[in-house]
Amino acid sequence: MVQNTFSTKGITKVYGEGRSAVHALRGVDLDIPQGEIVVLLGPSGSGKSTLLNIIGGLDRATDGDAYFRDQNLSGMTDKQLTMYRRDHVGFVFQFYNLMPSLTARENVELVTEIARDPMEPGEALAMVGLRERVDHFPAQLSGGEQQRVAIARAVAKNPTVLFCDEPTGALDSTTGRAVLNVLKDVNEKLGATVLIVTHAASQAAMADRVIHFADGDIREVVINKEKLTPEEINW
Ligand SMILES: Nc1ncnc2c1ncn2[C@@H]1O[C@H](COP(=O)(O)OP(=O)(O)O)[C@@H](O)[C@H]1O
Ligand SMILES: [Mg+2]
Prior knowledge:
Blueprint: E1 4-15, E2 22-33, E3 37-41, H1 48-55, E4 63-68, E5 71-72, H2 78-88, E6 89-92, H3 104-112, H4 121-127, H5 143-155, E7 161-165, H6 173-190, E8 193-198, E9 209-214, E10 217-223
Parallel strand pairs: 3-8, 3-9, 6-7, 7-8
Antiparallel strand pairs: 1-2, 1-4, 4-5, 9-10
Helix pairs in contact: 3-4, 3-5, 4-5, 5-6
The structure holds adenosine-5'-diphosphate (ADP) and magnesium ion.
Adenosine-5'-diphosphate (ADP) binds near residues 15 and 46.
């Protein structure tokens, strides 16, 4: 049996209280097997980022349990959550969050210097097709290239799971496809579980598993028997 990377039981998240309370998650039960590409698809405001932040150890649920393998994230101290993120989790966000005063290589080194079993920064940048650009600053790179640096930074620690929150949200179709191709490579070559959060339905076709999300809960889980490559996606 394939081990789950994540499973959650009854995750709820309420922001604020009283009449202004926002119920962002309403009892989410979720299983994500190791090694899959999973697309979490839903409209803006449906709670996707909230869920990703909780299973990524960036935020805490109001109620319920979130397991990484057999460890309950809900019971961890802040320090344990930090170690969990450091050892296992890579993040890629819509707006690349690179340090503008550091080169591509130096941005990746920020992570490899503290990781337990890192790749060589140049190797991570070669993996995303930026071998020739390691000494360039973010301002010298296109949006798609900056996102690939951000992916290199996230994968250089050899993460168990790569969380990508709207990774192509700021990109055109050609560069967006290139970024999705890199995510596919990371899944295939490193065996990392890749979770892509998006509101773009077309990206579901490249997933092993599509979690349809609406109004703070899962509506449907679809297993794709056949996947499309990012090139084949109808953007
Ligand atoms: N820090 C916060 N404080 C208050 N409300 C929040 C906060 N973060 C998100 N929300 C609300 O929770 C709901 C879900 O947000 P989010 O998880 O960002 O959705 P999505 O990523 O699907 O667009 C939205 O109504 C949003 O306004
Ligand atoms: Mg979001």
